[in-house]
Amino acid sequence: MMSALPRFVVLYAAMYAAYGVASPFLPAFVNSRGIAPEELGLVLGTGTAVRLVSAPLAGRIGDLFEALRTVLVLCIALATFTTLGFLPARGFWWFLAISALQAAALAPMTVLADALALGAAKREGFEYGWVRGTGSAAYIIGTLAAGQAVAAAGLGVIVGLQAALLGFAAFAAALVPDLPHPRATRAEHEGVMTLVRLPVFRYLVLIAALVLGSHAMHDAFAMIRWRAAGVGPTTASVLWSEAVLAEVVVFFLIGPALVRRLTPPGALALAALAGVMRWTVMATSTQVLALALVQPLHGITFALLHLACMRLIASAVPAALAGTAQAIYGTVGIGGATALATFASGSLYGRLGAAGFWVMAALCTLALPLTWRLARSSERH
Q1: 103 and 224 belong to one structural domain
Q2: 241-273 pLDDT tens trace
Q3: How confident is the model at residue 86, as a pLDDT?
Q4: Among 102, 139, 195, 344, which is least packed by CB within 10 angstroms?
Q5: Closest listed residue to residue 183, CA positions, set 346, 64, 354, 75
Q6: Residue 150: domain span
Q7: Is 64 helix (H, G, I), strand (E, B) or coil?
């Protein structure tokens, strides 16, 4: 029987390539259809908010029916068809509806795939990192290929590329092994208050919310900003891929050692400082050289921050509440903050243009004193 590893490699390559060909260019595509920056912020922010509900719901359904693979295949198939809805879309309400439907279908994809891959890795003894690393590499290749395709055929080509890759991912998902697991036990609802009473946990969630939330304007408007400044699609895709490559390098090579050397609070402080530098350059320059120098800071502002937060959760949170802690961190520190910041970024960019990135730099600045308080709390813990 064929090992699960190559099947997961194919699945992750298809999934993340599908993200790569569309994610950097989708805001510009929607904008090119006449959607103003304020409306674009609402479209993208609604999609982010929908993800906060759909991913946990799909995971819960998969657990209750012990059918994670089936739910995964259905979600990817639904995402394939909803993606095609972008082609005829015209007007704010149509884009809002299609974006929400696509987000609802896409959000559970990586969550369910990770659960299946981790289970298979444990059973068969391969490294989950091999699978996830394949996904990151596929994202970069997809972004680079999409840049070439957009330069040749226009922004609309990304819709067909993503739909085709998602269709292939649905087929690949049907071939991976399912995860045999017991039904979930009833959660201890008082556990949330236990976490809220932990100063270390409170501070790390707030820091993550500020620094990760500050990425929202970049994710929504960087391509639009560069395009307006005359940066070509191929160069823009290289800049975007550069950030993802830095993320991979930090996750797999230098990140763990850096967290140990700086301590987790120190690593979070470095991430906040890197955010201030990154968004300051985005607010003041569209020179390709300047952008190329700061795009790798994504490895610090995202990957290093995430590694530091994981280290703090592992050391400060009781083992019985580890799952609850991860859910709160992911929902408030990443998902909720990103949704709010995405909604706000549309209005900010519409009124201030690139100067809106100063607000993102201010969010990272606000995180800095919290890292000092976190360090003090960590010492007492």
Answers
A1: no
A2: 888 888 888 877 788 789 889 999 999 999 999
A3: 92
A4: 344
A5: 64
A6: 4-173
A7: helix
